[in-house]
Amino acid sequence: MGRRAESFSIQGRICSHLTTKAEESAAHEAAFVSQMKGWRSAKATADTFAIAAANAASSMSTWGASNIATKFQIDSVMLDVQMATARDEYDTFMRQQAEEKDIFMCLSEVDKLRAQFDVEKAQIVRRGTDLGDAKVEFVNALRATERAYAEGMSELDAERKRTVPSFAHSYWYQEKADRFLREFTWAKRLVYLAMRAVEYEFQQSLGLRKDILTATHPDQLEAAIRSMQTEVATRAINRRGQSLPR
After folding, report:
1. Hey, which residues does 44 pair with through a beta bridge?
2. At what angle do helices 173-202 and 218-233 cross, to 10 degrees?
């Protein structure tokens, strides 16, 4: 944004300068044309009177007419000199205007390059600052990683040296807990199905349904299984003792 604003300002100065110079050139040219027009008219008048006086002097052979003709001839020559001088001055002025324009355009281009250089310099400074910030962030992240690594290695070493299991500081506690819940739920279902099978065989309710469905510990399921084993052991079906596999 700064670079565009600077370029816009420089271009505005260029346009303003060129407009001023164009106006000066136009005014100078108008004055030159007007002056030359007056001198040409005066020269034409002088030439006309010089010719008339010369003719009069030739026909009358008078000294006065000859002097008048000479005077107008001199006036005509002087006007030629003035017009030539004015032409030279005009040409010099226009050449100077062109040279000043070239110099100004050159300096303006230098200003543009300087503005571009300043913007790029500012960008380099900002990039340097960004690099410094990124370096600090990297160093902080590296140190945090090193600390985390050291803490992890320390915890692993402590786990290796631990002789008594402790779920309170186990990193796999949740996984083990989830696995226990899945397997306990499955065990409850199997014990319940076994109870239903025994009840079906005996055509008698064992009173274990609530104990199995509300069990929250494996020992409760173990107690229900032992109750079913005891019930089966005390009965005979088709004259053979029935038992549940352990």
Report:
1. none
2. 20
SS3 240: strand
Whole-model pTM? Answer: 0.34
Cβ contact 177:206 at 8 Å: no
pLDDT digits (tens, 9 = 90+) for 193-229: 988 888 888 788 888 888 888 888 889 889 989 888 8
Backbone angles phi, psi at 96, to 5 degrees: -65, -40
pLDDT of residue 186: 92
Structure tokens at 162: 């631990």
Q: Tell me the two tokens of residue 82.
A: 């003035």
What whole-number distance in Å separates Cα of residue 89 and Cα of residue 79?
Answer: 15
SS3 of residue 126 by DSSP: helix
Q: What is the dihedral of CA 191, 197, 201, 204, to 10 degrees?
A: 70
Q: Cβ neighbours of residue 229 under 8 Å, at least 6 residues apart?
A: 243, 244, 246
Here the tokens at position 152 are 């992890």
Query: Quick one: tokens of 246?
Result: 């352990």
Residue 32 in contact with residue 86, Cβ under 8 Å? Answer: yes
Q: Of 236, 232, 211, which Cα lies nearest the Cα of 221? A: 211
* DSSP annotation string for 141-178: HHHHHHHHHHHHHHHHHHHHH--S--GGG-TTHHHHHH
What's the pLDDT tens digit per position in 127-176? 888 888 899 999 999 999 999 999 888 888 877 777 665 555 556 667 88
> Long-range contact list for 26-33, CB < 8 A, 24+ apart?
28/90, 28/93, 28/94, 29/90, 29/94, 32/86, 32/90
Tell me, what's the pLDDT at 3? 59
